[in-house]
Specification:
The protein has 537 residues and is α+β, with helices and mostly antiparallel strands. It is built from 17 helices and 20 strands. It has a domain of 262 residues. It has an eight-stranded antiparallel beta sheet with strand order 8-9-12-13-17-18-1-20. A seven-stranded antiparallel beta sheet has the order 7-4-3-11-10-2-19, covered by helices on one side. The protein has a three-stranded mixed beta sheet with strand order 14-15-16.
């Protein structure tokens, strides 16, 4: 863990991105500026999880007002994407590589919106370090190289390879196409992405892959600023992005858990309650998470104490009883998460993604990024609130988190990457931070469970390191388990970052051991006092 009395702190899943974010803060930028710069750098250094062909969400805490705002920079379905258009894919087994599943990429517009509203620096300054990385190359991280190799079969272009293969750990990788794209955006703003040659190239690539996107779909894109959703867990305010983000899944589970005693970290009963509460939350979130501008989402009722009390009665403290078919997510995915706290006390929590691994694997020629398959988040049930429809936003896995104290003061940004692992990771992080008073690094390093959404469909994956007594009790209570699952090179158990601000002004940060990242700090000469409390390899 890094604990420091400093003027700023950042954390991300890539060391180079963290260094870039810290440099922005050192130059006087805000937490929003730092996160935009880190996000752009992550698009270069971790294209296995994110890129300009995907979406982004952010929560921003403004210290002067203690107000939290939520940026939704997710895209909408093309105007021609109807349920009938999708049915030729096969209702039961959609192909993730099809261009039909490409919604409008929202990330680029999100950068401009976040920097404009909460930043002090020009987009040109914030993108400059990422452009340099793309042009000159960067050494690929060990975890990133492993994920790149695992996802290589998804790619439908050699543009993100080295002579058709994945880069090795420590090998230099250059992306001149992405550098050119970023230069255009830096010079002309987000219009360079959504109008003109880049937009034409994207739309043509989508249609060539079987999709229905037109240039007009890109030109009409816009981000939204929404009110975040929250709950109180044992006196701590937990904030999430509202639907179409799946942030409510974490809040629903925490509301159920708030009615039980916390238990010790290695208490098998605690693991049983966490898993069952998460299944209850997934059952609700799978139905209600949709575009609130096109489907009614009763947030107030869902997050009410009376509702959570009723849902709590479904949980048997002595037996696994929740239907694994309904209490499990549908797909896996990949994401990057990063956060920052600046000298003014502002905080930004940000995540971006192109969904399942390399998304569709479609690389618009010469642009240096893949297009996501975010429309897979839609339902194909005509009666479902989240049914696919033109210009609609799908169920979205991205969900940056934020914690505040009872008096509204900042405790800190936190988040997890990894598709439907994200709400599960949020719940496990929050309970570790609140119930166990764990420091950020210890909370991140603890072994995790993941209710699987892959081929195992509802099986609880237990990461290597979970105590044997926990495994034995969960199995005896009827939980379908896969124990001892390794995490290296996979997104299964997520990779998170946390920064906490003490009441004395000291910042403490952690970066997940499952990733290639780190915490970086900024200090004025009079306040330089940093302690590396524990190593984080």
């Amino acid at each position: 863990m890094i604990a420091a009395r400093v003027t700023g702190m950042v954390a991300s899943s890539q060391t180079l991105a963290s260094e870039i974010g810290a440099a922005v803060l050192a130059d006087g930028g805000t937490a929003a500026d730092a996160c935009v710069a880190m996000d752009a750098a992550l698009h270069v250094t971790e294209p296995t999880s994110t890129g300009l062909g995907g979406d982004t969400f952010a929560l921003y805490y403004e210290a002067a007002t203690a107000r939290i705002t939520a940026l939704n920079a997710s895209g909408r379905a093309p105007a021609a994407l109807t349920l009938n258009a999708v049915r030729r894919e096969g209702v039961n087994v959609p192909r993730p590589s099809s261009g039909l599943w490409v919604t409008v990429p929202g990330c680029c517009a999100g950068w401009a919106e976040l920097a404009s509203r909460h930043g002090t620096m020009l987009l040109q300054r914030l993108l400059a370090p990422a452009i340099t990385l793309a042009e000159e190359g960067f050494p690929v991280g060990a975890v990133t190289a492993a994920v790149w190799e695992r996802g290589l079969a998804q790619l439908r272009s050699r543009e993100l390879t080295i002579d058709g293969r994945a880069p090795r750990a420590g090998e230099l990788f250059r992306n001149p196409g992405l550098a050119r794209t970023l230069r255009s955006v830096a010079a002309e703003g987000s219009d360079a992405f959504y109008k003109g040659e880049i937009a034409r190239t994207i739309a043509e690539a989508v249609r060539h892959a079987g999709g229905v996107m037109r240039e007009s779909d890109l030109a009409s894109h816009f981000s939204t600023w929404d009110e975040p959703v929250s709950t109180t867990y044992r006196g701590v305010n937990v904030w999430e992005s509202p639907p179409n983000s799946q942030g409510i899944a974490a809040l629903l589970a925490l509301n159920v858990l708030d009615g039980f005693a916390p238990g010790e970290p290695d208490d098998p009963q605690r693991w049983h309650l966490l898993i069952e509460a998460m299944r209850i939350a997934f059952a609700d979130a799978r139905w209600w998470t949709s575009d609130p501008r096109m489907s009614e989402v009763p947030l107030e009722a869902l997050l009410a104490h009376g509702y959570s009390a009723a849902r709590r009665t479904l949980l048997d403290p002595a037996r696994a009883t929740i239907d694994v078919r309904r209490g499990a997510p549908r797909d896996r995915g990949g994401t990057v998460y990063h956060c920052a706290v600046d000298a003014r006390g502002n905080a930004c929590s940000m995540a971006s993604s192109h969904f399942i691994g390399f998304g569709t694997g479609v690389v618009p020629p010469g642009l240096g990024f893949v297009l996501h398959n975010r429309a897979l988040g839609f339902s194909l049930d005509p009666a479902h609130p989240n049914v696919i429809a033109p210009r609609k936003r799908p169920y979205h896995t991205i969900m940056p988190g934020l914690l505040t104290r009872a008096d509204g003061s900042l405790w800190g940004p936190f988040g997890m990457m990894g598709g439907f692992m994200q709400p599960q990771g949020h719940v496990q992080l929050v309970t570790a931070l609140v119930d166990d008073a764990s420091d950020p690094q210890a909370a991140l390093d603890s072994p995790r469970f993941c209710i699987d959404s892959g081929e195992a469909g509802g099986v609880v994956q237990l990461e290597e390191g979970v105590p044997e007594k926990v495994v034995e009790l969960l199995r005896s209570r009827g939980h379908p388990l896969q124990a001892g699952t390794p995490s290296f090179g996979r997104a299964l158990f997520g990779r998170g970052q946390v920064i906490l601000q003490g009441t004395d002004g000291v910042l403490a940060g952690g970066s997940d051991r499952r990733g290639d990242g780190r915490v970086s700090t900024v200090s004025s000469p009079s306040r330089h006092s940093q302690v590396d409390v524990t190593s984080n390899d």
